[in-house]
Please model this.
Amino acid sequence: MLNGKRILLIVAGGIAAFKSLELIRRLRERGASVRCVVTEAGARFVTPLSLQALSEDRVYGDMFSLTDESEMGHIQLSRDADLLVVAPATADLLARMASGMADDLAATVLLATDKPVLAAPAMNVRMWTHAATVTNVETLKRRGVAFVGPNDGAMACNEHGPGRMAEPHEIVAAIESLLALAPAKPLAGRRALVTSGPTREAIDPVRYISNHSSGKQGHAIASALARLGAEVTLVCGPVSLPDPPGLATVHIDSADQMLAACLAAGSVDIAVCAAAVADWKVARPATAKIKKQPGAEPPVLTMVPNPDILATLSSLGANARPRRPALVVGFAAETENLVANAIDKRKRKGCDWIVANDVSPATGTFGGERNTVHLISAAGVEDWPTLAKDDVASRLAARIARHFAAPPTAQAAE
Ligand code: CTP
Model:
């Protein structure tokens, strides 16, 4: 899988640095070459000698060593790599990356590179959830840095929560997916917006109305578009999936917030609305928890319609801000008269394509791993075979790329 690929591994100072040794072994087993840069703190957790023995290459550490600079300048380190991997990516190094500092060799290489960068964060849970780190990670994601992990679990500091570095095999998988698709980027230069997951509509500060959407299909589509080179913003409701690497994820709760986040993403070329947006919200959510009054009737909730995000995006003007995406794709989850309902929904919502999805109980697809879909456009209906959700996503992304590659007249016809 990784034959001939050149990885520049940047090891920062965290207890997880010991896992980087295993990472080097696994990468080399797959045919990649690994060259290491270690920060001063990193070298306290794992010796440069171990990194050198496993990578069978020199280890670079001191930016101000004249020999290093004459033999292998920091620009050259990045030039010679296909991908930079920061593992472990500490809170400190992420902060230095986000603010563009160049105060050691690791930070300098990361500032000087034009190669893809994958970061595997590792830190104490409080450091990971600190507003400063959250902002730094968002900034880096917006700039295209891909992330893998961190995972949830017990930590060396006797705490529990997100902060554990992803396991070496997970980092290898993220590297493979980043590199595998590097050559074909037909959607490079295009911006895409994807909605995913359910929304939550508040009843009071502790209760809400929602649905069972897992977000699997929407997340898979966002990743598939990013793999084809699109700059993707994923707006997602509460899901238990990790943020996909290589794109910007915006987390929201309600339909109103989802619409605001979609409009805040600015003008995009492609919008795919895969979220299961609640059709209604409670007219006036209580500001305090609704208490049971002895002997009183249960409360009656008055509902009002939510904004229709797909219809709103479809109805934006070509000169509006944001402007209408050139291609708006909706989903139609139907239990009966699938194609007829979806054709009708396409017209009603004003979108270009509808991915019609059979969710009748007999198919067992809702919340499952597979989907049977039909792609409905102005040109007609394409029946797709039953596919894993990841494959539906790849096929849809490839179909979108084909659409943009076609001459304008052909684009207008579908
Ligand atoms: N959708 C949306 N905003 C809403 C409701 C739906 O963006 N408030 C989008 C979904 O993301 C999906 C499409 O509209 O792409 C169709 O959703 P669906 O629930 O199937 O359609 P509804 O409009 O809810 O129609 P119905 O419930 O009558 O089938």
In short: Residues 2 and 176 are 7 Å apart (CA to CA).
